[in-house]
Amino acid sequence: MSFSPVDRQINQRNLLFKAENFQLTKSFKLRGAMAKMSASSSASKGGRLITASSGNHGIGTAFAARSLDKDLTVVLPESVVPSKLEKIKALGVAVILHGAETGLAEQHAQHLASTGQYTYISPYNDFDVISGQGTIAPELLEQCDKVDNIFISMGGGGLISGIGSVLKAFSPHTKIWGIPASNSMALATSIHAGKVIETEHLDTLADAVAGGIDEDTITLSLATSVIDEFVECDEDAIVHALKALALEENMIVEGAAALALAGFEKVKQRVIRQTSVILLCGANYNQELISKAIYGRDIDTTSVDSH
């Protein structure tokens, strides 16, 4: 796991990017995976582990399993981005494809674990995973003189719960902005309702944050306690942010990373002269889909930084 850089936005002095797209697995998910794998008593005893993922958590846990010599199976939805599937397979773990979306893959992994064959590792509903994601926050405070705002994409809530908990303790003035995608609003809707709500999940470029959440997820209370404000973003806003990052910052990232910038763009007039950080959560993307979103056609992206 590497210490990810903070990059300053070219045209705005007070806008910074915490670049988890430069992480070893091109996603922050490695942090939680390594924390859980290292802490798991089942893993230390050589037990069989199983997890579910839209892709990035699967890559992170597969990398951790290979590094720590663990027996891991990853359940993925049938809609998984092909490049993410290939990365997971290349890391040598067992793969099961199940269900049309991530929530169904999670349910299947939990069912297999309930048979006693495996120990289940949740991508978000786990204190060790959340604490691993939270290691981003002390890095950020070391790298920046101050952080007035941080914009974080929302999926299951592990990332925003981990970072938010640390920042509320050590930088209480920092405002935590939660950015959900309009096409997958499970956590935001549940927080507003005060209980887990089943929501409709439509296709989104921010596939890494798509899907439902567990009925007993600890991220509901954690995220509720740390998020100061939500900014919902639709697909057009995500596309605009993808284009800005590619054409102005020379960075091609996945849709979930661009989602955080899209949220900032919606409220940037409210945070003028404040230091704001965009959490770029990853860069494991479907090249054809992202290229079409950015350039309107298929294009070779090897000349543009995709790390």
From TrEMBL:
The organism is Aureobasidium pullulans (Black yeast)
User: What does UniProt list as this organism's lineage?
Assistant: Eukaryota, Fungi, Dikarya, Ascomycota, Pezizomycotina
Q: Which UniProt keywords apply?
A: Lyase, Pyridoxal phosphate
**InterPro entries assigned to the protein according to its UniProt record, in alphabetical order:** Ser/Thr_Dehydratase (IPR050147), TrpB-like_PALP (IPR001926), TrpB-like_PALP_sf (IPR036052)
The answer to keyword DNA repair applying to this record is: no
Q: Give start-end ranges for the coiled-coil region(s).
A: none
Named cofactor requirement(s): pyridoxal 5'-phosphate
Presence of the UniProt keyword Lyase in the record? yes
Q: Which GO terms describe its biological process?
A: isoleucine biosynthetic process; L-serine catabolic process; L-threonine catabolic process
Official protein name in the record: Tryptophan synthase beta chain-like PALP domain-containing protein
Among Pfam families, the record links this protein to: PALP (PF00291)
Q: Which segments constitute the Tryptophan synthase beta chain-like PALP domain? A: 8-282
- Tell me which PANTHER family the record gives: L-THREONINE DEHYDRATASE CATABOLIC TDCB (PTHR48078:SF6), THREONINE DEHYDRATASE, MITOCHONDRIAL-RELATED (PTHR48078)
Gene Ontology molecular function: any one: threonine deaminase activity
